[in-house]
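User: I'm putting together a teaching handout on how multi-component assemblies are represented. Below are the sequence lines for each component of a complex, exactly as they appear in our records. Could you produce the 3D structure of the whole assembly as structure tokens, so the students can see both representations side by side? Please keep the chain order the same as the input.
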Amino acid sequence: MTSLGGSSSSTTEYTVRVPKNTSKRYNIMAFNAGDRVNCSTWTQARMERDMSARRIYGDDESAEGAGGSEFGKKQRDEARRRKYGIITKEFKAEDQPWILKVNGKGGKRFKGLRKGGVTENASYYIFTQCPDGAFEAFPVNGWYNFTPQAKHRTLTAEEAEEEWGRRNKVVNHFSIMLQKRFREQERGGDDEDESEKTGKKKKNIGRGGELHITDLEDDLMMSSDNSDSSMGEDADGKSKAKKNVGKGKKKKRKSNDKEAVEESDDGDYEGLEVDYMSDESSSDEEPEKGKPSKTEEHLKGIDEASESEEESEEEKPNEEEAKEEEEEEEGKKTPVQTEKKKKKDSSGESESSDDSDIEGETASALFMMKKRTPPKRPSGRGSAGSSKTGSRPGTPSIDSATTSNTLRAAASKLEQGKRQNQGPTESPAAKRLKMDPSSQSPAPSGKSTPQPPSGKSTPSSSDVQLTEEAVRRYLIRKPMTTKDLLKKFQTKRTGLSSEQTVNVLAQILKRLNPERKIINDKMHFYLTE
Amino acid sequence: MSEVNLNGVKQNKGVWLVKIPKYLSQQWEKATEKGEVGTITIGKKQGKTEVRFSLSEELTARGATGESDASLQVPRHHPLTMHTVKGQTMAVFSQTESEISLEGMVVHRAECRAVASDNYMKLKKLQIQESIKPQRFSQQLEKAVTHVFKPVANHSFNVAYQKKKKTEGKMVRAERQVVLDMLFSAFEKHHYYNIKDLVEITKQPVTYLKEIIREIGTYNSKGKHKNTWKLKREYRNYESEEEKDEEEMQTV
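Assistant: Of course. Below is the structure of the complete assembly, with chains in the same order as your input.
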């Protein structure tokens, strides 16, 4: 080292050496300044190549080692690639990213990606100063940009899109990850179950604890019992419908639990990605989705009038009705009055509010029943066994005796309908025949007109029958509200109109006389067998 | 290749990252064993720090020999512009076959500039001329490459082929057992065979071979394009692991 002393300038000279014989290859490890990486604080570091891309390249080779190998496979593949001009890039271990783990398990993790184009036009050298003052220059082999890797859980792209769609509605964003974890736990639990029960046709929906899984199973099981032919499509269609409804309900529930949610509009569900459980495409699902979720909303409005945050116009009368029903439950108002009110309200409204009407009617009918005929239980039970074929002398008397008040109005409506169209009687006939005895005997006297056996078990043109057997099966399996039961026998499926559904269901429930239990402030029915 | 040697950063070694033009690095490669390529002068001129790199004399020649060729000379003096590394934290790690070690942190960045002398301009001109040359170029052929076939009674290739066929003769049916043995030994090597390959291996006529293999094997379109034959389960006794995987795949 020579130092030339000068008056105006002081210069120091250092020699530069480029060592020739090093086997060391120097690389640059670049971090972002924002990450605030201080290498001197590292106590321990491990670094290795990220070979996860190797399986993409060398997948075939490992598989075709000895097991499942073909004669001359490699040559054929090579020839094929040449023929089509496919050029696959080689897997170069040198170019693979680095994985740097600092300070052991609990420390940071970095991924180092190789930056291309560094050594093309200019060469980089590392100048280090030696103890003797000279500089040693080493050429830089590669440049790697190291970025820290997130340890916290992140949403997948699909989940992120979903949440993005809801960003204006969701207030509490912290719950998003919480729910994701919850969902994952359930899914994990379901997976375990599935692996155990291989025979069952259990679909992994991942909504454990909610009603919908069992609904689905029930549907599948029930349909298979009733008619094999219709099972395939029906189950699919039902599962679709159920799933849509379930999804709507699930979203509602999620929002009810933790977040303040606006009322949802029609277009909100459009961009939704739905898990594919059936073979049908999503475009089919969307229009259907809109409808059941709407009906869902309306149905919900009745039972959970106090809880529900929706305030569409259609639901206001529903709320009123609900309130009326609740009062009725306590036996304050006479059923006739409510009936009249309901009729008034329902006269001008759409079918969806009819559903709620029916809901109210059923509930009211049932509650009326419960109060006035406790001793009739055994008779009801006894005849329940022969629901399909036998005639039941006992029940009509009950029917006509006590429900005529509430059902009379409905029946009279049917009467009118019947008189207007004396056409072929299929499933409506089932209702009409039943209603006829009760309507023709206006006086609430105990007329025991035997039920025509066909009235109940007429095989309608529908695929799912609203039979006592079916209801009983549901109730044995799980406690259900009237609303749930109604959902199971949707008018599209059974072929009955909504009013008829209500009436028939009321009848069945009377006959079955299930036990009651309050779950979540809702009256559930169940049977124990 | 895992544990990183952190000695460099622990001692807080600082290094410079210097960008050197290609022609200069080329010259450096010509350096002697000792490795001296030049000198760096760090001076303070009127308050400003100036860093310069001077290429050593013997490396200025551009030609193959070590003399200073007058026509082509690499410029000697290169000022280095220094930058700080505020925006980026850079470390240097080195890699050998056995070890990875962190050599140090980059404290300065520098770029080697060239002075615009005549020498330099000449050099650059040459460089540009070289790089402008396209990689692909057209070349005139003296003799045209043709694949046009002259009409010939019988092509030479065909003649050869027919001769070969005649000398070989038709494939003779060997004993059934012999053929079976051949097939089993073939299937020991690979699991799946094409019928054509089997014909070639066993040298049996196709129909006969098909009969035999229908006994001991099944035809499957594996899902992988080609339709191949494989041995029936009862005849198989491959290595357990791969067998299991295969069977599992089958049952699923």
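A couple of points students might notice: The two ends of chain A are 102 Å apart (CA to CA). Chain A touches chain B through 62 residues (CB under 8 Å).
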